[in-house]
Write a structure and sequence with these properties.
The protein has about 100 residues and is α+β, with helices and mostly antiparallel strands. Helix content is about 25%, strand content about 30%. Strands 2-1-7-5-6 form a five-stranded mixed β-sheet. It has a two-stranded antiparallel sheet with strand order 3-4.
Length: about 100
């Protein structure tokens, strides 16, 4: 029982991967937060620092996380449950002036 995690843009360079399967039995509680924590163990703390804003207790404003094509902020945020077969996509947002 797994989920597919995809990376877009600069996160491909950080992880050296376009996608990775995550086995749900490797997570204590299958949520977006535990997926991010698991990915941080695989790719280093720099990955987690690019995604989470700890002093705001949530996602960085310049990152979108989609679960099955729905942005998690309209679901249950970092506590959004992850189920077998889900597709999770991390999208860094960059813009200029």
């Amino acid at each position: 029982m797994s989920v597919e995690v995809r990376f877009i843009g600069s996160l491909v360079g950080l992880t050296n991967k376009n996608s990775i399967p995550i086995q749900l039995n490797q997570l204590p509680k299958p949520t977006i937060l535990t997926v991010i924590q698991h990915l941080s163990k695989l790719f280093g703390k720099n990955f987690e620092d690019r995604i989470l804003e700890y002093h705001l207790e949530g996602l960085r404003l310049r990152v979108l996380v989609l679960k099955n094509d729905v942005e998690i902020r309209v679901l249950n945020g970092l506590e959004t449950e992850v189920n077998p077969g889900d597709k999770i996509v991390f999208i860094p947002i960059s813009h200029g002036g």
